[in-house]
Design a protein that fits this description.
Blueprint (H helix, E strand, L loop, with lengths): L1 H29 L1 H30 L4 H18 L14 H4 L27 H15 L6 H17 L10 H23 L15 H10 L9 H11 L4 H5 L8 H15 L10 H4 L11 H10 L19 H6 L3 E4 L10 E3 L2 E4 L2 E3 L3 H14 L6 H12 L3 H9 L3 E3 L3 H7 L15 H11 L2 H13 L3 H27 L1
Parallel strand pairs: 1-3, 4-5
Antiparallel strand pairs: 2-3
Helix pairs in contact: 5-7, 6-7, 6-9, 7-9, 7-11, 15-16, 17-18
Pfam family, one: DUF247
Keywords: Membrane, Transmembrane, Transmembrane helix
InterPro entries: DUF247_pln (IPR004158)
């Protein structure tokens, strides 16, 4: 009871303190002569302090040029909308936020080809300028057979778009008007010729082509073209292509297709280029139906176009939930709970994941060296762009939940959902922390996760899965189960016949 004694002692001490405090306060209150003196002295002290403060404040104000400060602030407020591109809703090309950049710096920086002004002229990226000029020359040479002044017309057209294109960048473009026009023109012609050479017969590419005939260069250019910081506005590509495209070219690009506008032809050529290299791992046989979507006509740049193709026409994901979040177990845990996996269709986009009657249906995709960089740049774009739905970020979150170990990769590969070009350990690490440091307010897979978790709580699917795993995992185990079943049936028949005889 030492604790109790200590508390009592403390209480006694507190009582003495309060008694002493009350006594002293009583003396102060009843001692009226002293009260008068105290009030008088306090009043004098306050007057002196106030006078001293006013004197000091007036002295300090004499050293401040209030008019200059007001003028500077007024100028800053007047120019804030026009000078700060981060405040503009028209921006679509951004520098990667530092909080995302630090996770994997190599995923956001081009290795050989600079596209646009943000990385133009940087060390290690100047050697490929000659390749871009060569492609531009090939494009102009082919078109100049019918238009000898095509280069001049291109310069005029891009000059008309220069100011609007400059506003697409969220950071100041540190190039003069003429320099910026040249960058847009060279890079735009390079991309158009690159897409055309892939979409047209081999006769369009020469034997000494610096890109088409070098596997390492193809891998590099494929990766560099989807980086967020390495973009030019799609309107620049659209304008240049409309000037260099002729209707009879479409027969070379798409022999069995119906006539299309130059915009749709360019879109299909771009998607075909990335399909060949498996950047997204999609089967774009449905590209004609997807092109009917108005979203394709609103693409801001190549990365945005690829994002639109990933989303596809997935209407099931309209309206994410802002209030609730619910996660699901990993792929291996779901198998143990009796959930089955099935390779889905990409007709509605890669995000169209479904769950019904214990079957989780996931559209297929490819994992290779560029997969992490691709998803990271998609997520960065969604984080930066004005009012951009976090569709890809949600998808990355779901994959991160499903894939925790190499065993999860093996399970998804077994069902044809993943085509893995890496070893399972490295592939499983790609999705670890892929969406870390992102701010997401909506979750489009809440209903799906709720259905999966509800199914996992049922006992019968789990028992059935355990029984199948333990007794039908190998040919010998299956044979033993069949043998046991035959013995059981024979024993049952013998029992029935014995009963009948009696």
């Amino acid at each position: 009871m030492e604790g109790s004694g200590r508390v009592d002692s403390d209480n006694d001490f507190a009582a003495i303190e309060m008694s002493s405090f009350g006594s002293s306060m009583g003396n102060i209150i009843t001692a009226s002569p002293h009260e008068s003196g105290f009030g008088s002295s306090m009043g004098n002290n306050i007057d002196i302090a106030s006078a001293s403060h006013e004197s000091s404040f007036g002295s300090s104000m004499e050293n401040i040029d209030t008019g200059s400060v007001e003028s500077d602030l007024s100028s800053s407020l007047d120019g804030i909308i026009f000078e700060n591109s981060l405040l503009s809703t028209s921006c679509s090309i951004f520098e990667t936020p530092k909080i995302l950049f630090r996770a994997n710096e190599k995923a956001y920086v081009p290795t050989a080809f600079s596209i646009g002004p943000l990385h133009h002229g940087k060390p290690g990226l100047t050697a490929t300028e000659q390749i871009k000029l060569k492609y531009m020359q090939d494009l102009i040479s082919r078109v100049s057979r019918t238009n000898s002044r095509i280069l001049k017309h291109m310069v005029i057209e891009i000059a008309c778009l220069e100011e609007e294109a400059r506003q697409c960048y969220a950071v100041p473009v540190e190039f003069t008007r003429d320099e910026f026009i040249k960058i847009l023109l060279v890079d735009g012609c390079f991309l158009i010729e690159l897409f055309c050479k892939y979409g047209a017969p081999e006769s369009w590419s020469s034997a000494n082509d610096p890109v088409m005939n070098r596997a390492c260069m193809l891998e590099v250019v494929d990766r560099d073209l989807f980086l967020l910081e390495n973009q030019i506005p799609w309107m620049v590509l659209d304008r240049l292509f409309s000037m260099t495209y002729f209707p009879h070219h479409m027969i070379l690009f798409f022999p069995t297709s119906q006539p299309m506008s130059s915009h749709n032809v360019l879109t299909r050529l771009a998607l075909r280029f990335f399909r060949i290299f498996g950047t997204r791992g999609l089967d774009l046989s449905m590209e004609t139906s997807l092109l009917r979507s108005t979203h394709y006509h609103e693409s801001q740049h190549i990365l945005d176009l690829l994002r639109t193709s990933l989303i596809g026409s997935t209407l099931r994901l309209e309206g994410g939930n802002r209030e609730r979040w619910e996660l699901i177990p990993s792929a291996s845990s779901l198998i143990e709970a009796g959930v089955k996996f099935k390779k889905g269709s990409t007709d509605s986009g890669i995000l169209d994941i479904k769950f019904s009657n214990g079957v989780l249906e996931i559209p297929p995709f490819i994992i290779h060296e560029s997969t992490e960089a691709f998803f990271r740049n998609m997520i960065s774009f969604e984080q930066c762009h004005h009012h951009c739905d976090p569709r890809i970020t949600n998808y990355a979150m779901l994959l991160d939940i499903l894939i925790n170990t190499p065993k999860d990769i093996d399970i998804l590969c077994k069902y044809g959902i993943i085509k893995n070009w890496l070893n399972p350990e490295k592939a499983s690490m790609i999705f670890d922390n892929l969406y870390n440091d992102t701010y997401v307010t909506e979750f489009y897979y809440l209903e799906l996760c709720q259905e999966v978790n509800k199914y996992c709580k049922r006992r019968w699917p789990r028992w059935r899965a355990v029984y199948v795993r333990n007794h039908f995992s190998s040919p010998w185990a299956i044979a033993s189960q069949v043998f046991a079943a035959i013995i059981f049936i024979l024993a049952l028949l013998q029992t029935v016949f014995s009963i009948k005889k009696q």
